[in-house]
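Quick one, probably user error.
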């Protein structure tokens, strides 16, 4: 299906992440280069419902490639989740004479884009931007690499104190349903243990490992916990109750969403933004831009949102091996 597209809308939706601005920059400048008019939709789907739309120029996206967050702002919209809300959104797009939509966000945002296409047949392209890296069919999403590196930098600093004070630290990272960040940062930081939502954990076995480690002269211990597995506070309490060892907690929280994007996220953002524009120019719609085996490709939106990426079990086992 190829439609005569002149005006493209772009929005960021759901949770923010580093690299979103770099994607917006690529979409706007690639779009203008390709002969399109590009319109920024502010505050996600909620802003679309309210008509918060502004024409973008190349200068609109100057000096944002290194900035975290999103200049278009973001929000969640319960109204858009209803068929009536999506009809209202489509009415707004028609009123503004916008012919196609590029949505930058996670699974909920891209499901919304897919529904908008199914119900109203407007050309849509999704760009995966989520720190959880859980969208199916892409090796990486925008923001994931930065989030892991932000958490890693914090844990490296905490490790210094853990060694100096001979303490156990339980560090809680983001990951309500997916343990990707926890797993990656635990491996990179040399953590002794990682707890993720996908795998049941055994506190007694973990405490036994800690006691064995102390007997071998291991003076510090770092445990990385994904928020969806349990809380750092609960694990620390159990360790103290069972060992009496000095145990502290750190919750990194929203720190992981912000910050200047890494080189990897900036390069990926540039590639994804251009690919989204090319897709619309070529008549490819209802797709998500993805990267697999270092190649940019398009996959069906419904497939991308149909299931979550699986945990890398080889990384999980490697953490156990290297912690000895």
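Nope, works fine. Designed sequence:
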């Amino acid at each position: 299906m190829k439609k005569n597209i002149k005006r493209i809308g772009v929005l960021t939706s759901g949770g923010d992440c580093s690299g979103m601005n770099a994607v917006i920059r690529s979409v706007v400048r690639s779009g203008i280069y390709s002969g399109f008019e590009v319109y920024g939709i502010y505050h996600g789907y909620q802003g679309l419902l309210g008509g918060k739309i502004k024409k973008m120029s190349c200068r609109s996206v100057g000096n944002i490639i290194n900035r975290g967050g999103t200049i278009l702002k973001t929000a969640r919209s319960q109204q858009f989740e209803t068929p009536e809300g999506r009809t209202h959104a489509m009415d707004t797009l028609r009123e503004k004479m916008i012919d196609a939509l590029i949505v930058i966000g996670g699974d909920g945002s891209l499901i919304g884009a897919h529904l908008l296409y199914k119900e109203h047949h407007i050309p849509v392209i999704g760009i995966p931007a989520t720190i959880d890296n859980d969208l199916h069919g892409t090796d990486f999403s925008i923001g994931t690499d930065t989030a892991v590196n932000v958490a890693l930098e914090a844990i490296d600093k905490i490790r210094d104190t853990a060694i100096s004070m001979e303490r156990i630290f339980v560090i809680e990272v983001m990951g309500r349903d997916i343990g990707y960040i926890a797993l990656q940062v635990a491996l990179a930081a040399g953590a002794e243990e990682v707890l993720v939502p996908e795998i049941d954990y055994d506190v007694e076995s973990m405490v036994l490992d800690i006691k064995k480690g102390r007997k071998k002269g291991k003076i510090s211990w770092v445990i990385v916990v994904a928020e969806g597995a349990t809380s750092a506070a609960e694990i620390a309490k159990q360790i103290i109750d069972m060992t009496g060892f000095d145990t502290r907690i750190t919750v990194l929280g929203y720190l992981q969403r912000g910050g200047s994007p890494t080189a990897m996220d900036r390069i990926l953002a540039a590639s994804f933004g251009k690919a989204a524009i090319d897709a619309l120019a070529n008549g490819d719609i209802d797709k998500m831009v993805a990267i697999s085996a270092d190649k940019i490709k398009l996959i069906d939106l419904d497939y991308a949102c149909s299931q979550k990426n699986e945990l890398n079990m080889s990384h999980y086992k490697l953490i156990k091996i290297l912690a000895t």
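The longest strand covers residues 7-12.
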